[in-house]
Amino acid sequence: MSQVKINARDIIVEVESATPDTFLRVENLANVVINKSENEETVDTTDYDSQGVYEQEVMQRGASMELEGMAKKDRLTGSLQPGRARVEEMAGEDKVGYDSLGRVRFRHPMDTEWKIWNCTFSLGEQGGGSNDKTSWGATITKSGPTEFEDVA
């Protein structure tokens, strides 16, 4: 078995559209970071029998994904690309409670399965300096267990 290093830039991130089980690619990403321990909670289980050595157990698992890129709009209509528009829609101020939940799926091209998260969406800071392009970013926070689906 030959092991190869994986290009971070090759990750494919898709967000579910308003039509269930239909996904849109989140376009023009410059940085994707997955934190598999976000929202993890532990409990200290150290007692006298631990003989001065710290012990713990994980009580809750979590994960998040940070997406970053430059803001990009159609120069004639001002509309966002479809995947980014859906992320921004899901992060809208009217998306609270059950309506705040959506789904994303992601994988690298050599993966045979999609990882699918039920999740919430939050937009990051946007802007920049006088010689910058406007930044765009979003945080996707997993809610519940990861699901898996074979790549079609």
Give start-end ranges of low-pLDDT stretches.
none
General shape: globular
CATH class: Mainly Beta
Largest sheet: 8 strands, antiparallel
Identify the CATH architecture: Beta Barrel
Number of domains: 1
Q: Work out the strand percent.
A: 35-45%
Tell me the distance between the termini: 24 Å
What is the string of SSEs from the N terminus onward? Answer: EEEEEEHEEEE
> Count of DSSP helices?
1
Based on CA atoms alone, the radius of gyration comes out at: 19 Å
User: By helix and strand content, what is the structural category?
Assistant: mainly beta
Provide mean pLDDT, rounded: 97
**Helicity range:** under 10%
CATH fold assignment: Elongation Factor Tu (Ef-tu), domain 3
What's the number of extended β-strand segments?
10
